[in-house]
Design the sequence.
């Protein structure tokens, strides 16, 4: 094999590559490296038996690659590991030629016994093949007997025959000796690899002379020689074993790199390839051929690029590969897609050009590894970095990058967009009552509905928890965004079915526009978040656009939260008690505990403000627990017949520890559990499940009473009344207010609720009763209890205790009938009485009348025309007068607008927009 000069270390010039002849059972393996070892340096039988079959196959392939054809025992004159060859035709010819030459010069023909010996000798040598086949798999004893029969005996007979012929004076001794030397020499050549058998053959042919002459000295010499031969044979055998072991070691050293590369290929971790100067394959690993669905020999001669999917020329890896092949430059770890149908597999390919010793380019040689799993891992990591693992939506990072990309567009016209922030209403309650697995499934369904609602109009992402984000690119009108926001709210508010549970939630949306509400990502997100808070403050389940005054609201909320935490820590919260009166006996049956907060600087804070803040921040749980304990301690100081009612928020109701908290409060105060009444709103039934039923059962097991608060204003149906163990239904004051007015439907609603409660064996309490006619109405329709200003406003504990000390009797005090709600204001007006104009100030105003000051001692019944605004004047009559104040009644009631305000005092839209220094269209939206 030609030396690999002027080539990189470990590489062989392509011209030196030798392939096995066609028809070999195993395909040729072309492995870079030196020439394969010659066949005579194969391992000894003992060493060979310990080597794996794969190593034998590789050794055969290396012999084949060196141009050596493996020889079977039938073809080889001597196979290593055997005691004698399968045949020795030239030895037979030599014996026949020796006999023929002896006959030609002999003076007398041999005797018949001598001829018989010649025949037996030649016949025994001729049967060597059969004896060899029988002895192949025999033990050492069997092989020894075969050697004696096929080698020793025939040669001994030949020697005896020649000696007898010469001894009887029929043949000259020099001719006989020459014949014996010739035959023994050829036998020695055939038996050169087995010194012991070779010496046995010599002894056999030459001992005949000593035996024929009966020479004692000759026989002794032969025996001594035989002993020496055995010793020498043993030494030779040991030497041969050492030489074979050394040759095996040298062969392993020479082929170590080849074996390592072969092992590397077989593990599937990598593969090798080689091309000629035209970039056509001259070698490729079998694993690659199998992967593309072709035999290894079919890939030889095909272009290297046939291994890859080159259909998409836009792939960077494939463009680079073509460049390097044409430029004959080395490349490393290029990612290319394999040409495998119906499967996406990626390879990393490296290669470098190879040159012959004359610096002529002869092709490329390189390697490849499977890149599929690594690429999938990278794609998965990228997906996890940019997309939410639960819903599959874009995550906070990806949405932020998308928004920054839009806002950073080179052209200002392309920077317009809208950001919508969404927050799910009552999602925390779902997590607390049904568990996080149900919450996770709910988020998945919310994501699907949100994507369907937005469709191609924008990008949807999840920021975390129950917060979502929608980016609408390009400039979109407010009307379109309002419709989209309403569509999203409507879609997300529809009931969900999860694991047999019917779940209902809501959504609130805050909207900010670029560049109107900010030109940076931080500004838009902050302003959209403020709009979201405004939507929640407005009652949830609605959308709200950002406005500049929301900053003040946000600061007020933050201040409220901080002050509330301080109030809880300092014990500034108080419980006030409003009497609940039995309508039949007009006796105080109990009190409703109402939480109040007196701020050290701001004074009394309206409950609706700080209760809402407590629910948003989670402080309601701590406040509710305190209210339960305090109310139980206070009612313990009152008569046994007096109960106390405490409101329980949905967040408290979802707490599994609520029964334990109630039990602890009752036990600590030492009261009968029936004296505590828990008022629960309909919102707890939004997620009607086994947990809700279990909570009701646990509370009833304690012995407390349960009241359904604000009945008819929630989100549920009447179905829960069939199984919820309520003792009382409280009619919301919104049904009581205005029930006495002509044509009001509220009285029918009150009658229906009281009838339903009576049929179910429940008490009823009418809330917000303020006038005597409202009291008569609720009594007439069968309400068992009444609560409102008609009897008493909420009292402190001391005032309530003082009230009870004088007895349980309650006296109704208040106006006979209700009047329209009044708006407090300071508004300058002009009064016209028979052409005489007077200046006045409206202190409060309703749709039916007003309190006006500025005119003294006006007679009752005086008629005025009041100019409330430049566009509106109304005729009124003075009904009472005191000093500079008077009450007037309008001849025609004023009307209210769609927002509930009095239309006569509202500025036109255009004037409002000018006053606020904004565009009329924006103010109208």
Sequence:
């Amino acid at each position: 094999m030609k030396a690999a000069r002027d080539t990189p270390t470990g590489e062989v010039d392509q011209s030196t590559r030798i392939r096995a002849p066609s028809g070999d059972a195993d395909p040729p393996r072309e492995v870079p490296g030196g020439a394969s070892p010659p066949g005579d340096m194969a391992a000894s039988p003992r060493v060979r038996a310990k080597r794996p079959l794969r190593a034998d196959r590789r050794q055969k392939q290396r012999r084949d690659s060196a141009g050596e054809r493996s020889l079977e025992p039938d073809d080889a004159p001597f196979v290593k590991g055997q005691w004698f060859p399968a045949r020795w035709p030239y030895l037979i010819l030599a014996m026949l030629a020796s006999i023929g030459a002896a006959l030609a010069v002999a003076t007398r023909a041999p005797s018949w016994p001598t001829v018989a010996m010649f025949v037996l000798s030649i016949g025994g040598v001729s049967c060597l093949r059969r004896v060899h086949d029988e002895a192949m798999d025999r033990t050492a004893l069997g092989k020894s007997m075969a050697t004696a029969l096929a080698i020793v005996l025939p040669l001994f007979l030949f020697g005896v025959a020649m000696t007898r012929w010469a001894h009887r004076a029929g043949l000259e001794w020099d001719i006989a000796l020459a014949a014996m030397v010739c035959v023994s020499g050829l036998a020695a050549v055939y038996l050169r690899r087995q010194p012991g058998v070779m010496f046995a053959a010599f002894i056999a042919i030459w001992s005949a002379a000593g035996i024929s002459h009966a020479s004692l000295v000759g026989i002794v010499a032969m025996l001594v020689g035989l002993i020496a031969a055995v010793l020498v044979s043993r030494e030779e055998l040991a030497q041969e074993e050492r030489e074979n072991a050394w040759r095996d070691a040298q062969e392993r050293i020479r082929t170590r790199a080849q074996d390592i590369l072969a092992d590397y290929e077989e593990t599937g971790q990598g593969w090798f390839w080689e091309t000629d100067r035209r970039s056509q394959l001259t070698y490729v690993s079998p694993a690659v051929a199998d992967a593309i669905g072709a035999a290894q020999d079919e890939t030889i001669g095909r272009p290297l690029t046939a291994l890859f999917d080159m259909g998409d020329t836009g792939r960077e890896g494939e463009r680079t590969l073509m460049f390097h092949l044409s430029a004959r430059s080395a490349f490393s770890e290029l990612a290319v897609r394999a040409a495998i149908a119906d499967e996406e597999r990626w390879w990393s390919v490296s290669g470098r050009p190879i040159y012959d010793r004359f610096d002529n380019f002869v092709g490329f040689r390189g390697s490849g590894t499977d890149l599929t799993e690594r690429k999938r891992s990278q794609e998965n990591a990228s997906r996890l970095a940019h997309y939410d693992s639960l819903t599959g939506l874009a995550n906070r990072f990806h949405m932020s990058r998308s928004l920054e990309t839009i806002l950073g567009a080179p052209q200002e016209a392309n920077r317009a967009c809208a950001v919508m922030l969404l927050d799910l209403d009552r999602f925390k309650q779902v997590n607390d009552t049904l568990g996080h697995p149900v919450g996770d499934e709910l988020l998945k369904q919310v994501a699907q509905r949100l994507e369907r609602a937005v469709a191609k109009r924008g990008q949807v992402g999840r920021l975390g928890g129950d917060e979502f984000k929608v980016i609408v690119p390009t400039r979109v009108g407010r009307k379109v965004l309002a419709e989209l926001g309403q569509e999203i709210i409507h879609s997300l508010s529809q009931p969900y079915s999860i694991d047999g549970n019917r779940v209902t939630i809501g959504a609130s949306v805050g909207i900010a526009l670029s560049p109107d509400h900010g030109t940076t990502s931080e500004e838009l997100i902050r302003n959209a978040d403020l709009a979201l808070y405004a939507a929640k403050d407005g009652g949830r389940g609605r959308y709200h656009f950002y406005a500049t005054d929301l900053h003040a609201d946000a600061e007020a909320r933050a201040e409220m939260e901080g002050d509330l935490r301080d109030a809880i820590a300092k014990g500034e919260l108080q419980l006030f008690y409003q009497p609940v009166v039995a309508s039949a006996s007009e006796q105080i049956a109990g009190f409703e505990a109402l939480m109040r907060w007196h701020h050290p600087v701001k004074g009394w804070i309206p409950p609706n403000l700080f209760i809402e803040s407590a629910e948003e921040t989670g402080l309601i749980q701590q406040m509710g627990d305190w209210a339960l304990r305090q109310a139980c301690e206070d009612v313990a100081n009152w008569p046994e017949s007096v109960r106390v009612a405490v409101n329980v928020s949905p967040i408290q109701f979802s707490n599994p520890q609520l029964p334990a908290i109630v039990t602890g409060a009752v036990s600590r105060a030492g009261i009968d559990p029936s004296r505590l009444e828990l008022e629960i709103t309909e919102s707890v039934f939004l997620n009607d499940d086994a947990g809700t039923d279990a909570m009701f059962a646990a509370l009833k097991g304690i012995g407390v009473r349960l009241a359904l608060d604000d009945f008819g204003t929630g989100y549920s149906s009447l179905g829960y009344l069939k199984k919820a163990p309520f003792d009382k239904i409280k009619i919301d004051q919104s049904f009581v207010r205005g029930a006495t007015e002509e044509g009001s439907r509220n009285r029918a609603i009150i009658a229906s609720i009281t009838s339903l409660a009576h049929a179910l064996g429940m008490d009823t309490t009418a809330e917000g009763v303020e006038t005597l006619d409202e009291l008569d109405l609720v009594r007439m329709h069968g309400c068992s209890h009444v609560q409102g200003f008609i009897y008493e406003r909420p009292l402190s504990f001391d005032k309530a205790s003082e009230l009870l000390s004088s007895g349980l009797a309650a006296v109704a005090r208040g106006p006979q009938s209700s009047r329209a709600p009044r708006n407090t204001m300071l508004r300058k007006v002009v009064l016209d009485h028979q052409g005489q104009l007077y200046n006045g100030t409206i202190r409060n105003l309703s749709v039916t009348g007003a309190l006006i000051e500025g005119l003294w001692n006006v007679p009752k019944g005086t008629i005025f025309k009041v100019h409330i605004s430049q566009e509106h004047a109304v005729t009124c009559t003075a009904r009472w007068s005191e000093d500079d104040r008077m009450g007037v009644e309008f001849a025609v009631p004023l009307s209210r607008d769609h927002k509930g305000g009095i239309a006569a005092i509202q500025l036109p839209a255009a004037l409002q927009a000018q006053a606020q220094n904004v565009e009329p269209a924006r103010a109208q939206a």
